[in-house]
Design brief:
alpha/beta; TIM Barrel; 2 domains; eight-stranded parallel barrel; 11 helices; 17 strands; 24% strand; elongated; binds pyridoxal-5'-phosphate; amino-acid biosynthesis; Ala_racemase/Decarboxylase_C; pyridoxal phosphate binding; pyridoxal phosphate; Diaminopimelate decarboxylase
Length: 380
């Protein structure tokens, strides 16, 4: 796909992010079709990528917005998402963020602690408003993913633990400006083993029973996001298996009459449509492999340094015999390495290198460390 656009890519100043809106549209179309089979509501998790053209596609697909900061709520609403399609999660919502979201009358706050519920009640009371909330419950389900992107275990900071729920219900009795409308879960990200979601369904069913046994009916169940993508063979799996994913929830999640089921997908919708393009600056001889030193680094894509994650790396301009390289960036950190021992065609100064599957948690995590300039963005 990228090679077809080589001329256009070669004219850009590097490094830059390139997004295929065509692949994005195909991905969203499939997600939408599969979710619609079961009347599921999809919210796009803005934190994966909040660029305006990408948000416009999400809106076009009819998705809501899942936000984890006040600025994300703002970006979503300014981008055209209706407040009644915006949900707001996060363990540390500031007063200013909460007040902004209250002013916008968003659909739901996903609340993560008793203390947060108390503060939200206070702030809503001051405005004479009622805040709709879902309790983010920590279901203690292992997502079998990297420990830094596991969020649903009791050791994690996210959500309310099962053993606290009884006291949360007691607390809610005393908070008149809070309306409980549902329960929320999000157990982690880059989950490729679908049986993890089956375990989540089992836990959600148990929690539902627990609430029902206390005569609490929940109009909304939000099972979060986390569906993984294929970083190893992007071209073989450009679009995640949404049919299997939503089908699994349909099979295992017990939905009560009138209940709405919500999803919050980030990575699975946008990861494959983005690529980081970089130019080779230098080749340097090492002891066992050579270093290919790029003009992009952890400032443009921090995932390898932060989560030891794998990204496919391609040399778009060389067709010479293969050699082995440690592909590194220019930043003054040893962790600024995209991957060691990468087999590439012989690589030289000026070659264009593509780092694939960078559409999610790439550009949004960019930093200005080393006073780096913000990389450009192009859309194909
Ligand atoms: C990050 C996040 C998501 C999206 O996760 P993906 O793995 O990108 O699908 C959904 N919900 C919440 C609460 C999140 O924090």
């Amino acid at each position: 796909m990228l090679k077809q656009h080589l001329q256009e890519l070669q004219q850009q100043a590097t490094p830059f992010y390139v997004y295929s809106l065509e692949l994005l549209r195909q991905t969203l179309q499939l997600a939408k079709t599969e979710a619609a089979k079961y009347n599921y509501h999809v919210h796009y998790a803005l934190k994966a990528n909040a660029n305006a053209p990408i948000l416009a596609e999400m809106l076009q697909a009819g998705f809501g917005a899942d936000c984890v900061s006040g600025n994300e709520v703002k970006r979503a609403i300014e981008g055209g998402f209706k407040p009644e399609h915006v949900v707001f999660a996060g363990v540390g919502k500031s007063d200013a963020e909460i007040n902004y979201a209250l002013d916008q009358d968003i659909f739901c706050f996903n609340c993560e602690s008793k203390h947060e519920l108390e503060i939200l009640n206070e702030l809503a009371t001051a405005k004479g408003k009622t805040a709709r909330i879902a309790l983010r419950i920590n279901p203690n389900v292992n997502a079998n993913t990297h420990k830094y992107i596991t969020t649903g275990l009791e050791e994690n900071k996210f959500g309310i633990n099962a053993w606290e729920l009884e006291s949360v219900l007691e607390l809610l009795q005393t908070l008149p400006a809070i309306e409980l409308i549902g329960i929320h879960f999000h157990i982690g990200s880059q989950i490729t083993d679908l049986s993890v979601f089956k375990n989540l369904c089992t836990r959600v069913n148990e929690f539902q029973e627990w609430f029902l046994s206390r005569n609490i009916t929940l109009p909304h169940i939000n099972v979060g996001g986390g569906l993984g993508v294929d970083y190893y063979n992007p071209d073989d799996n450009l679009i995640p298996d949404f049919e299997a994913y939503f089908g699994l929830f349909n099979q295992f999640l017990e939905v009560r009459p009138g209940q709405q089921v919500h999803f919050e997908l980030g990575r699975s919708l946008v990861a494959q449509c983005g690529t980081l393009i970089s130019k080779v600056l230098y080749i340097k001889k090492g002891i066992t492999t050579n270093f290919a030193i790029l003009d992009a680094g952890m400032t443009e894509l921090i995932r390898p340094a932060l989560y030891q994650s794998y990204h496919q790396i391609e040399n778009l301009t060389s067709e010479k015999p293969e050699e082995k390289y440690d592909v590194v960036g220019p930043i003054c950190e040893s962790s600024d390495c995209f991957r060691k021992a990468v087999i590439l065609p012989e690589t030289n100064r000026g070659d264009l290198v593509a780092i694939r599957t960078a559409g999610a948690y790439g550009e949004v995590m960019a930093s200005g460390y080393n006073l780096r300039e913000k990389a450009n963005v192009i859309y194909l």
